Each structure stands twice: as structure tokens, then as C-alpha cells.
Sequence to fold (259 residues):
Amino acid sequence: MKTLIVHAHPEPKSLNGSLKDLAVSTLEGAGHEVRVSDLYAMNWKAVVDAGDYGSHASSPLKVARDSGRAFGAGTLTPDVIAEQEKLLWADTVILQFPLWWYTMPAILKGWVDRVFTHRFAYGVGEHSDTKYGERFGEGTLAGRRALLSVTVGGPESHYAARGINGPIDDLLFPIHHGILYHPGIEVLPPFVLYGADRMGDAEYPAVARAWERRLLALESTEPIAFRRQNFGDYEIPSLNLKEGLEPAGRTGFGLHVRG
Fold:
């Protein structure tokens, strides 16, 4: 297994840093290849601008079109090209980050914004009366699997079905479905650590054992059963789920998960 770990925390000695290091040692110890993109250590540029696309940047800037033109010409900036090559190399991707303000840190979102360019992560495939591009189950990154390893400051009850912050599955849906599944990556159930801000040294060994078990089971873990876009569940071109396919009473994000 070839695993890319994208790590987003500014403190190397943080819980996130420890989980990243443990992932590297555990996977390498099991005979797997591992590469790490430590975004803060790399001083990753988090904002998209015309400089990303060089001579293919238009005025006014059109990010989707211009990024696709630069990708097609092979003239994206070297840092972006390197990350795209890592994604194509990997068969497994782990995103390691703290949940800040209900989402990923800005530096990690900036990695997505710059690396997931048009014609690489989206805007691929045919658009016709029966197919709306290769996405949501198809795409450039199909055949890969991804896992979110997320630390959360609050207790688990705050992120339960009736919790004030909303269910954790709903908070992570835009990342799971909109960022990872969109270009074809199969998404594994997340590894979430609650109460991270209050976790002491005495609690870490149990956390480490749980993380090691998840890592060693990556190849056998069943992905979240998201519906594939072009395989009969959705009307095209409206992309509305066909009537009668949803389990009784299910609404919202859950509509897009089978079973």
C-alpha cells in the first residue's frame, strides 16, 4: 500500500503531530510506502491567485478555466504539480487535521483549492443526456481510498444526532462527499478523537492503540456507501435523487448514502 499523509497542524508536538508520526511508523512497520505533506513545515501557500497559472492566467482571473489550461499545458507551479503527482502515486490518502470552526484548517483547504485543479480533480469526462462528467464515484482519482483523522475539542455528545454542533457525519460530509468522493476517491469512515483539548498523557496510549488498529485495517475497511452519480440513482441533468430510492424518513445528506 502506498499512502500519502497530508498533515495540517502548526505544532509538531501536538496530538495531530503525534498521530501523523504514529501513522508513518505503523504503516512503514507493516511494509507500506508512506509520503508526508506536512503543510505548515512546507510553508504551503494557501491562497489561489494568478501566479498559480502563469501565462495561462486571464484578466479578470477565471480560476476554473485558467487552472485547467495551466494543468493541460503542464505549467502549474512546481509545488502544485508535486502534490498532484503524490496523489496519483498514492492508493490511500490520510488527511490529518484538527476540526477548527467546523471544518479543516485554512492551510488544508488551500491545499485542496490549489491542488484539485480543473481537468485534474474536476471537469473531466463526457457531458451528455446520460452522463454528467466523471465524478462522484468516477474521475481522475478513482481507485484510491481516503481516511480523515480528525481531532475535535468538544465532547462526543456535542456532535451526536441531537448535539448542538450537529452530527459529525454532517460536518464532515462536505469533505467526504464534496472534496474526496467528487474526483472518485472511496471514503472510509473517519477516525475522530473527541475532547482532544482535555486529553492528558495518561489517555494517549489507548488512543494510539485505537489509531494503530484503524491504520492496520485500512485495506479491509468498507468505504462509506455513497451513491454513484452516473449509475442510475440520479436524474440527469437535474442530478436529483430518483423518487423512491431513499429509506423511509431519510433526508438531507443521508439521501446520498445507500442502504
Q: What stands out?
A: The two ends are 29 Å apart (CA to CA).
